[in-house]
Amino acid sequence: MPIGIRGDIRLGIALETAKRGLRYTETNLDGWLNSTTLYLGGETPLGPVYLGYAYSTSGTWNIYFFLGTP
Predict the structure, then answer these.
(1) Which of 3, 6, 1 is nearest to 47 (CA)?
(2) How far apart are CA 42 and CA 6, in angstroms?
(3) Residues in Cβ contact with 39 at an 8 Å cutoff, skipping those fewer than 6 apart
(4) Tell me, what DSSP letter sits at residue 20?
(5) Cα gap 32→54, rounded to integer Å
(6) CA 3 to CA 36: how far, in whole Å?
(7) In whole angstroms, what is the distance from residue 11 CA to residue 50 CA?
(8) How far is residue 46's CA from residue 12's CA, in Å, rounded to a whole number?
(9) ∠ CA 43-48-50 to the nearest 5 degrees?
(10) What residues are paired with 14 via a beta bridge?
(11) Torsion of CA 25, 26, 31, 32, to 10 degrees
(12) Could you write out the DSSP letters of every residue in 28-64?
């Protein structure tokens, strides 16, 4: 999808899973960790821009925003 001035815009989803192994500092986390990320990114006159939201089944969530090279 062109945004008119420069480049394009992308919408995506990422699914991740990991198994926690040997713990060094965390004592209450065990088993599998699943997370989902939705993101929107593209090229602008100020450089690349990226906006994302991530949620984990452990209840943790994050919002990411980058303008320029992260």
Answers:
(1) 6
(2) 9
(3) 10, 11, 12, 13, 14, 50, 51, 52, 53, 64
(4) -
(5) 17
(6) 26
(7) 10
(8) 21
(9) 105
(10) 37
(11) -100
(12) S--SEEEEEEEEEEEEETTEEEEEEEEEETTS-EEEE
Q: How many CB atoms lie within 10 A of CB 51?
A: 14
Q: What is the reported pLDDT for 9? A: 82
User: Can you read off the two tokens belonging to residue 68?
Assistant: 């320029």
pLDDT at 28: 64
4, HSE (Cβ side, Cα atoms, 13 Å) = 0
- Residue 8 is encoded by which pair of tokens? 């394009």
Tokens of 45: 């006159």
pLDDT in tens, 6-60: 667 889 999 999 887 766 766 666 678 889 999 998 887 778 888 999 998 878 8
